[in-house]
């Protein structure tokens, strides 16, 4: 199988390395110097430091060349640049190529999921072979060969099963799911909750606080996800609870790191200026709140994260606001 991975960030690079173990794989990098370094030094130190990139993986900064003969296109571009990159490649995307999104965000303005953006930019493409790969997948651990699992969500079950083989290895287990909406929404919403978890850690709160936060966060993302058409069980699986736990407890999570620094009293602008990778939750929170309003769903944690990110509220004050809400049934 000929595979193109579009986006040479940490996760895009890790996924490309997985695919290159069995199949001819090309990794597209926006900047030529990143592609050159991968090809010459077998390293992508800016985004995935310490990882050895296999010689079977080729990098390029030529988007059309990467895509034109691919049987599988993996989109590892952040949500704010996803449409622009896909639109540039649209004319040469092969008609039968499966397309998997790695992006865990919502497009600003349109409030579209990335598979919806893909279907809009490729209107003649079979929607059954447009899907998402999502789960508790921290790039450094996956590339190091630590045991992990993920989900490929796609409505064409035969194609999804064929893609399992692409990424499966003794240390990386791949499941399939037909609930594209649920898997995609879970991936986007957990980034918002990871900022909240990080703020709790930055404020010095302990495990009781984190356990409470994760439990209620899962309830929030499930409510909105089901309202948008997702299946309830999806949110208890790898793309839901699994990804939520990994992102909310790991110091490797960019969104969690943003929350930690906010909890310590630093400004958002200062935190973002020091990061060389995108924390999707910073932009996604606004879209999530708009979706919640549109679907009539109450999301108190996401709302308080939005107050900190966009209104300058203090993390300690929003924790107090959450804890003093009117008491109600858990269900």
Order of helices and strands: EHEHEHEHEHEHEHEHHHHHHHH
CATH homologous superfamily of the largest domain - what is it? Answer: NAD(P)-binding Rossmann-like Domain
Determine Rg (CA atoms, Å). Answer: 19 Å
In total, how many domains does the architecture comprise? 2
Task: Please give a quick description of this structure.
The chain has helices spanning 10-20, 32-41, 63-67, 79-89, 114-121, 139-143, 157-167, 180-202, 207-227, 238-249, 254-263, 268-273, 280-295, 300-311, 315-323, and strands at 2-6, 24-28, 57-60, 72-75, 98-101, 130-134, 148-153, 172-177.
Secondary structure elements and their pairing?
Elements: E1 2-6, H1 10-20, E2 24-28, H2 32-41, E3 57-60, H3 63-67, E4 72-75, H4 79-89, E5 98-101, H5 114-121, E6 130-134, H6 139-143, E7 148-153, H7 157-167, E8 172-177, H8 180-202, H9 207-227, H10 238-249, H11 254-263, H12 268-273, H13 280-295, H14 300-311, H15 315-323
Parallel strand pairs: 1-2, 1-4, 2-3, 4-5, 5-6, 7-8
Antiparallel strand pairs: 6-7
Helix pairs in contact: 4-5, 8-9, 8-10, 8-11, 8-13, 8-14, 9-10, 13-14, 14-15
Walk me through what this model shows:
This protein has 2 domains: 2-178, NAD(P)-binding Rossmann-like Domain (Rossmann fold); 181-323, Orthogonal Bundle (N-(1-d-carboxylethyl)-l-norvaline Dehydrogenase, domain 2), CATH 1.10.1040. Helix content is 51%, strand content 12%. It has 15 helices and 8 strands. Helix 4 (79-89) runs parallel beside helix 5 and helix 13 crosses helix 14. The longest helix has 23 residues, at 180-202.
